[in-house]
Amino acid sequence: MDAKLQSAPTDAEYRQTGNAGASTLNEQRPAVDATAVDDLYEEAVYWHVNTGGETIHAKRVNGRWRTFKWITHSFWLIYFLGPYLRWGDRQAVLFDIPERQFHIFGLTVLPQDFWMLSLLLLFFAILLAVTTALAGRVWCGYFCFQTVWTDVYTWIEEKLEGGPQKRRALEKAPLTIHKAAIKGVKHTLWLVIAILTGISFVAWFTDAYALWAGLASLQAHPVAWSSIGLFAAGTYVLAGWMREQTCFWLCPYARLQGVMYDSQTVLPTYDYHRGEPRGRLKKGPADADSGDCIDCKQCVAVCPTGIDIRHGQQEGCITCALCLDACDAVMDKVGKPRGLIRYASLEELQGKPVKPLFKRGRVWVYSAIMLTALIGIVIGLATIAPVELKVLRERQPLFVLQSDGSIQNRYTLKVLNKTSADIAVTVSASGPEGLVLGEVEPITARAGRVTPATVFVRMPGDQLTSESESITFSIQALEDPRIRSTRESVFVGPRR
């Protein structure tokens, strides 16, 4: 959405719109002692939109949205703990690239089934689009790894260095032993998290316990060392140093999200009808003409990207809703109703009726695409055969004429075993009358691999009525007859 759509109106526009809602609230509002919020102005005196020339030290406030953020952040515990889950004698989830096998609990996905990956990527791409269209950048605000890691890094920074004012003072202070010690501990913890992030990433692609053993003995593969180093450096720089600038300048989603919004998208929004004209609280009776916004700038002070939500939707807004917690806390202190900054759509602010989701065309389109992709994935997973057969017919020569007048063709069978255990399979062939499969020993199909085997098929010359005939090869597991696969091919003879 263009930033102008949900920006605060000019004074002239505001006078035309009216401030009936705010006036009604002001009539019922008791006089408030402004000294209770003087400290809020003290903390916000430095705040303005950051363009990269300074480090943003966002204030932390408690509230329901901060609690919700911590809950959603915990999703990433799967990233750190997932590689250590076991399934039988192997890792439960293992993306084994050298062996070209993806193990997901009891399911093994091989490159031949990667068409499902395309559907999975389509599903999540559309899910991101529909989520953005309905509720803005909730991925950025609650789930994005950049947001989560930055939040954890700044939490550590606050615990060691103090609140925003103390951190700014420490930045400007000359280097002392005390400052060096605090900074040293902070950056050490940052690096530990960054290194664990890199190790956890690599652990999804190799056995986690074997990886730790290799790292401890300095015998890990060079690819593992380099991958850990790259991820550690990226995490340390992006989450520790660049922070919100990553969202501003490196993330393409921040620039794409604007075209996904419409007037019905629910976003953290400043209610300018109720808040304007803003102004500081004064002792004594409340001014009936003033809005509810006391211009304390706490919504700016808590913003991790340093924007002012009162100026409307901007590229820097990651929909984290921390400004809602800050504003609600201020409203509680000054005795005004919550919701001056809240999740709302442009149509709601304009007093229009909110359209139900089922009446929005894009919701139906997005849902249809997601459902189609999901059905394809489910069908694909449900129909993955344990074994798969491919047949390659020998072309040099096309056929061999035997001394008894029969015709022989040579074939290479390729048996793909998608399970985690070796399987012994028998081979059979069917086709025109008189077709005979040469003697073939049971084939031991190696787990997760393609096992080739050469077979010969003969047919009496007088039974071959055309230049080529269709034949069918079948394989069947010795121990479990339900595991089987078939593949059609052709039998070639001389021209008739």
Low-confidence stretches: 1-32, 41-47
Question: Averaging pLDDT over every residue, what do you get?
Answer: 85
Q: How many DSSP-defined strands?
A: 16
State the end-to-end CA separation: 72 Å
Radius of gyration: 33 Å
Give the helix level as a range of percent. Answer: 40-55%
Oligomeric form? single chain
Structural class: alpha+beta
Please state the overall shape, judged from the principal axes of the Cα atoms.
Answer: elongated
- Biggest beta-sheet profile: 5 strands, antiparallel
How much β-strand is present in the residues? 15-25%
Tally of DSSP helical segments: 19
Descriptive terms for the model:
496 residues; alpha+beta; 5-stranded antiparallel β-sheet; 4-stranded antiparallel β-sheet; 19 helices; 16 strands
Notes on the protein architecture:
The strands form five sheets. Strands 8, 9, 10, 12 and 14 form a five-stranded antiparallel sheet that branches. The protein starts with 10 loop residues before the first helix and ends with a strand. A hairpin with a 2-residue loop joins strand 1 and strand 2 (90-91). It has helices spanning 11-17, 20-28, 38-44, 64-73, 77-81, 115-135, 138-143, 145-161, 164-172, 177-203, 208-216, 222-242, 244-250, 253-256, 272-275, 298-301, 322-334, 346-349, 361-382, and strands spanning 86-87, 90-91, 93-96, 101-104, 107-109, 267-270, 341-344, 387-393, 400-401, 406-417, 423-430, 436-437, 443-445, 450-460, 468-477, 484-492. Residues 1-32 and 41-47 have low confidence and may be disordered. The chain has 496 residues and is α+β, with helices and mostly antiparallel strands. The chain is elongated and about 115 Å long. It is built from 19 helices and 16 strands. Helix 6 runs antiparallel to helix 19 (361-382), helix 8 (145-161) packs antiparallel against helix 10 and helix 10 packs across helix 12. The longest helix has 27 residues, at 177-203.
